[in-house]
Amino acid sequence: MTFQEIADLLQKKFGEAITLVKADAAVDPFITVSAASIKDIALYLREDESLAFDYLSCLSGVDRKGTLEVVYHIASMTLRHKLVLKVSVPTDRPEVPSVESVWKSANWHEREAYDLLGIIFTDHPDLRRILLPYDWEGYPLRKDYEVPEFYNGMRVPY
Amino acid sequence: MIETQQSQPATSRGTTLRTEEMILNMGPQHPSTHGVLRLELVVDGEIVVDVIPHMGYLHRCFEKHAEAMTNYQQVVPYVDRMDYLSSMGNEFAYVVAAEKLLKIQVPERVDYIRVIMAELQRIASHQVAIGTYGIDIGAFTPFLFLFRDRERILDLIEEVCGARLLYNYFWIGGLSHDLPPGWVEKAKEFCAYLKPNITELNNLLTFNKIFIERTANVGVLPKDVAINYGCSGPMLRASGVDWDLRRDDPYSVYHKFDWQVSVGRGEVGTVGDCWDRNIVRVHEMEQSLRIIEQALEQIPEGNVQEKLPKRIMPVASEVYARTEAPRGELGFYIVSDGTGSPYRIKARGPSFVNLSVIAEISRGAMIADLVAILGSTDIVLGEVDR
Fold first, then answer.
1. ipTM of the complex, rounded to two decimals
2. Do A71 and B333 touch (CB under 8 A)?
3. Residues of B291-317 as b/e, b for ≥16 C-beta within 10 angstroms?
4. Is B28 an 8 Å CB contact of chain A?
């Protein structure tokens, strides 16, 4: 299916939950959906036979200064099409439902987004830091991040 | 070493004997974890009940560093250091993504040289994977044989770009150097040299009875689980999924060559077991040789550097490009805000995702089998931790 067909299908099915369809993006077109509906949409995309998005390639967090974005790159192995989904949440309340129950590969990607950007994935079974030490403070990939002076008594900036 | 546990007396015949569960740390410094990885094992005697991986010991803040660069080209040396066994593969993925973002078309000769380098690197990487896997299982000799051949690949690469491990060879819009005179002939000689050695490897390791006993029917990864966990590369293909990005989501000039995707068939055990993961790598080495030979024949003359402005300014946009690195799908998600430096780069490394399935396929296995399972996933911790 082409991007436009998928977008039309989603708009028909979910209506208001689809907040932006950017078909004329400079490189990759994408669809922005509301945070509350991401899990339902993900499940629909995986289960519907004409879509069959069975593979979550990549899940990334991006700090857009004021809002935090979660970007889902999904693909179908059987039908060989791809799609970019986005969810945007305010930085002061960064809560996004986890899609771990839809695609297991989201588990570690979501932990990473939590670790580096502080996005809280609700209903995640094991939301712990993954790359940084468990007692690290702050989220380094936020644009306003400042390196702490000390970590457990060790000087951090070098 | 291990605290001995008193086994509980069985209350009645027919119930399974169980001992008290205990926690055993494997790593961070453990030869079979292939780097600095700590596996927290919950074990019931010799049986693995659960595996909890703890990573991050090699975290070098790649993504944070990338945001601090003043242009896109400066990221390439950092990309080299992610999966240090396949630097060419990493550079390939990054430059493909960056060129898609900047809308640059590279000269055809560049594409051919990139494919040749990436495939040479794939062979070298699989040689390390298979060799160290042999050591994990207890076979030391194949490792020496494979490293002897890998040395010749590194010599070839060194002649082209001056480095043996971390190359900085693929540049955005081209390459740092053209091939030196006489290199194509040397590469052809190498292909002819390596072919019989793969047969030798099969006799020595792949079809060795002890090796089969240790790996067949161990750590079986079913097809649907592999897809749901996002596994890719040999790990996915061994489970019977006919999927290779070089063919199914083509980039560069891969569509011009005649080669086959190797898929696990469960020849000596079950589809998706450790042995299948190993044989897929062996077959891939043969297929890579086929691609290299064709590319060496067809390589066109021409320029290896596209004329580019000193400072590259993309429009504010974003791109995700994925390529088939030796370990699977390596993708880069690059966000640009219209300035010279990248706004955000996320690397989707195959090792990171492939490792996440380890707990799923290790439950119920013996601790010794866990070593075999972990070795067969072929992770590089430099890429897991970035």
1. 0.91
2. yes
3. bbbbbbeebeeeebeeeeeeebebeeb
4. no
Binary contact (B356, A60; C-beta < 8 A)? no
DSSP B16: P
**Pair B232, B328: CB distance under 8 Å:** yes
Q: What distance in Å separates the CA atoms of residue B38 and residue A43, rounded to the nearest whole number?
A: 33
Secondary structure class of B43 (helix, strand, coil): strand
Give kind and range of the element (H or E) at residue A21.
Answer: strand A18-22
- The string of DSSP letters for B319-371 reads EEEEEEETTEEEEEEEEE-SSSS-SEEEEE-HHHHHHTTHHHHHTT-BHHHHH
A130: which chain B residues are within 8 Å (Cβ-Cβ)?
A: 55-56
Which residue of chain B has the CA closest to A141?
B64
Write out pLDDT tens, residues B192-222.
Answer: 999 999 998 998 888 988 899 889 888 899 9
Residue of B346, B341, B344 whose CA lies nearest to B314: B341
pTM of the model: 0.89
A105 to B229: CB separation less than 8 angstroms, yes or no: yes
Contacts of B313 (CB under 8 A, 6+ apart): B338, B339, B340
Residue among A76, A126, A129, A131 with most chain B CBs within 10 A, to mutate: A131
How far is Cα A105 from Cα B255, in angstroms, rounded to an integer?
29
The tokens describing B67, both together, are 């945001």
Nearest in space to B294 (alpha carbons), one of B323, B259, B332: B259
B56 vs A57, A104, A130: nearest CB:
A130
- Measured distance CA(B62)–CA(B78) in Å, rounded: 7
Residues of chain A with C-beta less than 8 angstroms from the C-beta of B344: 60, 62-63, 141
Q: Each residue of B124-171: pLDDT tens digit?
A: 999 999 999 998 888 889 999 999 999 999 999 999 988 888 998 998
